[in-house]
Amino acid sequence: MSSQHNSYDVIIIGGAIMGSSAAWFLAANRDFNGSVLVIDRDLSYSTAASALSVSGIRHQYSNAVNVKISLYGTEFIRNFETSLGNDPDVPPVSFEERGYMFLASADKAHILRENQAVQAGCGAATVLMTPDEIAKKFPFYNLDDIELGSFNGSGEGWFDGYGMMQSFQRMARKGGVEYIANEVVGIARNGNQIVSVTLKSGEVIGCGILVNAAGTRAPLVARMADIALPIVPRKRSVFVFDCHQALGQPLPLTIDPSGVYCRSEGGLYITGKPPENDDDADLNDFDVDYAQFEQDIWPVLANRIPTFEAIKMIRGWVGHYDYNLFDQNAIIGAHPEVGNFMFANGFSGHGLQQAPAVGRGLGELIVYGEYRELDLSELSYQRILANEPFIEKAII
Ligand SMILES: Cc1cc2nc3c(=O)[nH]c(=O)nc-3n(C[C@H](O)[C@H](O)[C@H](O)COP(=O)(O)OP(=O)(O)OC[C@H]3O[C@@H](n4cnc5c(N)ncnc54)[C@H](O)[C@@H]3O)c2cc1C
To answer: From atom 20 of ligand 1, which residue's Cα is the shortest distance away?
Structure first.
């Protein structure tokens, strides 16, 4: 597919949640009247993480900036239709504020305490709970080996992430953003300036600013401009199961000390866990690892929630995290030297919830040259050049 023009003020590579959030924030900003082109190699988004996610939002992070990003995301998602201008083409995203429950054994309880202090300092409603307090509220857990839980039922939960992406795309288009199906295969630099992208079709399109929102392919895109991104694809299987015996109430997104997570999904449940051998994934490998469910997940579920001894797995799917090996945090904003090349990459399992704040932040950087609503500069590429990791400890 060809573009209408041979040059744009802003070109965004990748039109899934990050690219389209940024595109919409630009289109909606009255101080911006530039042209925006979004290029995606697959406008069906069939293998994009944005379409294969579990779509949760939590405030329970170890870094204040990630807590603040999600607090912003919660308000945006809670008021989604209003956030996108109350347009009749924006359906609700069905936010279910059921909370996240992190469970810790004695050796890890201090991590929950430290993280809760950071979260409370940012205004998040996370509370620490003793096993007795947890048992009163959620009587279905086996808490024999649990020392402490941290729970936040206000602003954490899950929502229709795919619907959010579609609304960003629809409203960005309405605001004048052009989308084309094509693959960026080359990037031309003139010194420290990006000047154009080359498409698989052979077309060369000039740009004022280039945004890398290419998900797991972001390092391939960066390499086209001779820039290294420490990001790798990591395969994640997600399983849906049924349990005939009711728990009596929805299951918050529960994170077992083993790393297994599980939550309600309508009348069913979804679950997953980082694989034991978490090697870099083949970008075309979407085969579900059913053995992982049988061997590593079900026994943990049955131990933690004895009702889950009798469950039936219904189906599974695979998505890929864009995992930042350097410090497990996102890389956001302009390259310190190649200043018109911007990143929105390395989100692991939290990019959907971060998309409103990151899209807004990129829009502000492009229009004003600075962050205004929320300072995201701790997540800049600069830390990679300086070799100063900014570790996020609460990665699921
Ligand atoms: C199993 C799973 C569960 C998750 N659960 C959650 C969760 O509960 N909460 C949460 O917040 N996040 C979650 N995430 C993470 C979240 O889904 C991602 O962080 C987010 O969707 C990343 O969005 P993106 O737009 O950066 O990348 P993607 O959605 O991967 O999109 C990248 C796009 O770039 C395009 N592209 C790539 N290269 C090129 C090129 N050269 N030219 C043109 N186009 C290109 C691709 O076609 C694709 O459409 C989960 C992810 C997975 C896999």
So the answer is: 351
Domain with CATH 3.50.50.60 in the chain: 7-72+161-230+326-385
pLDDT in tens, 164-215: 999 999 999 999 999 999 999 999 999 999 999 999 999 999 999 999 999 9
C-alpha 169 – ligand 1 centre gap (Å): 14
37 Cα: distance to centroid of ligand 1 (angstroms): 19
> Phi/psi zone of residue 40: left (φ > 0), alpha (ψ -120 to 50 degrees), beta?
beta
By most ligand atoms within 8 Å of CB, the mutation choice from 3, 24, 53, 348 for ligand 1 is: 53
Q: Is 66 in the pocket of ligand 1 (CB under 6 A)?
A: no
Quote the CA–CA distance of 374 and 73 in Å, as a whole number: 11
**Of ligand 1's atoms, which has the minimum distance to the CA of residue 50?**
21
Would you give the end-to-end CA distance of the chain in angstroms? 38
234 lines ligand 1 (CB under 6 A): no
Which pLDDT score is estimated for 394?
85
- Does the domain spanning 7-72+161-230+326-385 belong to CATH 3.50.50.60? yes
Quickly list DSSP for 102-170.
EEE-GGGHHHHHHHHHHHHHTT---EEE-HHHHHHH-TT---TT--EEEEE-SS-EE--HHHHHHHHHH
- The arrangement of secondary structure in 95-157+232-319, i.e. its CATH architecture, is 2-Layer Sandwich (3.30)
pLDDT greater than 90 at residue 37: yes
pLDDT in tens, 85-109: 999 999 999 999 999 999 999 999 9
394 within ligand 1 shell (Cβ under 6 A): no
